[in-house]
Amino acid sequence: MPEFDSIELSGSQPFSLDKTLSCGQVPRCFKEGDWWYCTVRDSVFKIKQEDNVLTFDGVDADIIRDYFCLDFDLNKVYDVMTRDLFGREAVEKNYGLRLVNQDTWECLIFQMTVNRIRTKGVTDRITRISAKLGEKIDFDGREFHTIPRPQDIVDAGLPALKSCNIGYFADNIMLASERILENPGWEDELSKLPYDDAVNRLKEFKGVKHRVAEWILLLSQKRYEAFPVDAHIRDIFLKIYLKGTYFGVSDEKIDNLIRETAEKNFENYRGYALEYFFNARDLFKNE
To answer: How many CB atoms lie within 10 A of CB 146?
Structure first.
């Protein structure tokens, strides 16, 4: 009988492994039976939850705590969200969902290669890049591949990257890799910038637009004030908060008012509210 490591969760801190990993925020995790398998940075692990106990294998407890932000007080988010009727419904639907702490480079390269944040399937571009250029890891009788680091990509060269069948994304990724190698401290610098400056810094990467930059900050920098408005969130907010409001023809005006509404209602946890609303969207489709 194999021995696994475990963490006993605090009863006062909500956490649902299934809701966290199935909500669309994590691109490289899948579930088989009771176990979730995740490829994160240079590691692969499997993990499951039974009541307040997490059982896992492949990494140590510190990595699990850091990745799932288990030391973050989720009740602070709920205190803000549940003041709002619709926020309360979203919390009830997604109780225990936590935003994970993604690696910033991995989040950047993934966001650069998807047309939509909610990409599904195992043959996406990031999987092809990893299979060709990442490090192979054999774990639990399966073969996994890490996302290549900037140095790996530059060493492999542009032809190898283009052979991953990712089109023009190859040029953007190569430029990003070279840029990061020129400034190894970029991630730490990014974390210290004011929000708008951090967005603009990320937009300096070719192919990273405003909304993509916001996703990167939300998912890998714990910038919970980020609120990247997409079609799903726009539809929800127009139905439940801004019904009957006339905006003319300007999408920018609509999105700015949605951001203002989110900031007013959910303060610095509006990025959390966004994830909860997206995963509770069925509740609001008839509003």
So the answer is: 20
Residue 77 falls within a domain, yes or no?
Answer: no
116 CB neighbour count, 10 Å cutoff: 10
**CA 94 – CA 85 distance, rounded (Å):** 15
**CA-CA distance, 195 to 173, in Å (whole number)?**
24
- Domain extent for 262: 231-284
122 is a domain residue: yes
The answer to whether the CB of 99 falls within 8 A of the CB of 23 is: no
List, in sequence order, every beta strand (DSSP E) within 41-189.
Answer: 43-50, 53-57, 136-139, 142-145
The pLDDT tens digits of the residues spanning 63-110 come to 999 999 999 999 999 999 999 999 999 999 999 999 999 999 999 999
Structurally, how many domains does the chain consist of? 3
189 vs 104, 175, 198, 202, CA distance in Å? 12, 19, 9, 11
Task: For residue 51, give the CATH number of its domain.
Answer: 3.30.310.40
CA–CA gap between residue 192 and residue 195 (Å, rounded): 9
For residue 40, give the amino acid letter: V
Among 180, 196, 221, give the residue marking a domain's end: 221
* SS3 assignment, position 249: coil
pLDDT digits (tens, 9 = 90+) for 157-173: 999 999 999 999 999 99
Residues 128 and 195 in one domain: yes
Cα dist from 183 to 99, 112, 189, 230, 252, whole Å: 27, 19, 10, 31, 33
- Distance (Å, whole) CA 91 – CA 266: 12
